[in-house]
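note to self: the first set is below, dont mix up w the second
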Amino acid sequence: MDGAVLVGPVQCEATEGGIGAIAEGKGTARIRLYGRPMDDLSQAATLLHDAPEARGWNVLGVVWDGIVEADVLNEEQAHLRHKLADAGKGCDWPTILGILREHPRLANTTRLGGKSLYAPLHQAAYSGAPIEVVVEMIRLGAWRTLQNARGERAVDVAQRRGHKEIVRTLLPVLQRKVPHGILARVQAHFHSVIRGRASGTPYMSALRLPELEPLLELGTGSEPVWFAVPGMYGGFVYHLRNDGVEAVLISESWSRVVGGSGQRHEITSAGSRLVAEGFV
């Protein structure tokens, strides 16, 4: 497009002064992130790198927040996550819902440094939260397919604890169908791609890599999932293209400080294939 530049998913179209003027901090432009208007390019870049959410608005639609250690967060961010986890353990449902309404990206996060990997919905299942609390958590983006460290979904926790009144609500509602074995193999190949692409970053041990079961809760045509990698100055956008045994995961990744770093992979149960590169 004449007069426009594409930086990963960020499209910048000059309205005054041209692209060169924008790069020098002059002129004006229309900025779009995945087609959504941003105030400026720095805002879009910040949202892509650090927090694909602004005042409760989840810019990329769905986020896998894999942060499990405090090392990659500032003090305020770490405090908020500890507050969320403490509220879950203490059955403080109003505090949990208040945090998630303002920060929906945290709906599937777990305690920093914790070993159980209980997300807020797991905590609700464990303690038998009121059904209206469970419904609201799901509305705010909590995944019913997300597993804890033992491999339990929230519904499994509720059944183990005898909270029959919320079991039906916690049963995953799947929009896509991929055999478990196929999905597991696709996920393993995806993790290999991530490790290969982010091998030089210092925080890989502080991350929980994306699990693919939540993709089955998303309908066909839903927005891609964003996974930011601290230290990479970028990350991965991924979505499921096909269902069944022919399932294909499309992954795009880039670093915004390395020119030509963009790569697109097609990932199946048989392995991964680089299909495009250099587009960022």
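second set (the one i keep forgetting abt)
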Amino acid sequence: MAKSVGKLVPKVPKVPTVSGVAAATRRASYSASTKRSLLDAATALFTEHGYAGTSLDQIVAAAAVTKGALYHHYSGKQALFEAVFERIETEAAQRIAKALKKRRDPWDKALGGVRAFLEVVREPSYRRVVIQDGPAVLGYERFREQEGRSTFAHVVEIIDAVLDAGDWSLDEQMRLTFGRIFFGAMSSAGETVSSAEDPELEARRVEAAVGFMFSGFQLLIGTSETLPDALRIEAVPADPDDGTDGASDDT
């Protein structure tokens, strides 16, 4: 009878001991520290030697970890490079966001964002990892996808600041079109600045050119220019009576 009663009593799960919790915390802390060491070492080596000139042996030696520890966190050199790329892009986006946040005047905000972007592209790690090696290592599509997730939103914010300065009612798609055009222009300008013999001088040229373009918007706003009809583009609905499905009219 005692045995049958015992079977009906649910088993109480074991509660982790204090020492067990402490051990798990230490393991998590060690894992995070190892990952951070790998990222720091890889960032420094990729910046100095480039992707092709850096080996996994160099990275684990600089990070003072084993290859097994590296493969525990990353599948290989390209995966580690992508993590470094994402980290640099995230930090760059944060710097641009900080520059935008401090300003209220739309023109000051726009130029402040451009200035922050031009400072970022002159950083050695950004120049080597993002601009020089990024497209080749990640592939163009993956490179644009990563870049678009981090800095594109802030480029759109810069353009919104300019467009909102005027009494213009642009739809969301047209705003994104302006953003994509400006993002492409700034990406190209970033490549020019990073590869220039005198990056500081080239950055001043780009900033002056962008400021001149923004002054055109200011002039339009000052004259109370209305929005051109050409910018009010709407999708053309499909003709429900057109049931040809591309078939030839030839008989």
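remember for set 2: The mean pLDDT is 82.
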